[in-house]
């Protein structure tokens, strides 16, 4: 009755994808938001369904749009954390 998550996904493509999006768009929140929504939508509505057909992954107890919102929420948390850390770093170097 336990559920497993694919660790290679969490520490692989999701993390790399988030940082790949983050690097060129962290200076502009609107760009970051748009790119993340597009990429999260592609993952939730295209990639995961293809993986379902292949028998590799499947949604259980969650809808496609809910998964998309969760992914987007995580990306917002990462963005907020980065901006917080960026502010701390700037304060340390100014002293």
Q: Could you give the distance between the termini?
A: 53 Å
The helix/strand class is mainly alpha
Count of DSSP helices? 3
Helix-strand pattern, N to C? HHH
Shape: elongated
Low-confidence stretches: none
Transmembrane segments: 6-22, 29-51, 63-82
Keywords: Membrane, Transmembrane, Transmembrane helix
Which characteristics define this entry?
95 residues; membrane; transmembrane
Task: Give the helix/strand layout.
Elements: H1 7-25, H2 29-53, H3 64-94
Transmembrane segments: 6-22, 29-51, 63-82
Keywords: Membrane, Transmembrane, Transmembrane helix
Q: What would you note in describing this structure?
A:
By secondary structure, this protein is an all-alpha fold. It contains three helices and no strands. It has a domain at 25-88. It has helices at residues 7-25, 29-53, 64-94. Helix 1 (7-25) packs antiparallel against helix 2 and helix 2 packs antiparallel against helix 3. The chain crosses the membrane at residues 6-22, 29-51, 63-82. Keywords: Membrane, Transmembrane, Transmembrane helix.
Quick structural gist:
The chain crosses the membrane at residues 6-22, 29-51, 63-82. The chain is mainly α.
């Amino acid at each position: 009755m336990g559920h497993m998550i694919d660790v290679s996904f969490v520490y692989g493509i999701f993390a790399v994808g988030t940082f790949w999006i983050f690097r060129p768009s962290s200076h502009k929140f609107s760009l970051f938001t748009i790119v993340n929504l597009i990429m999260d939508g592609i993952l939730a509505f295209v990639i995961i369904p293809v993986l379902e057909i292949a028998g590799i992954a499947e949604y259980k107890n969650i809808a496609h749009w809910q998964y998309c919102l969760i992914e987007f929420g995580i990306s917002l948390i990462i963005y907020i954390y980065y901006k917080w850390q960026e502010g701390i770093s700037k304060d340390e170097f100014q002293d």
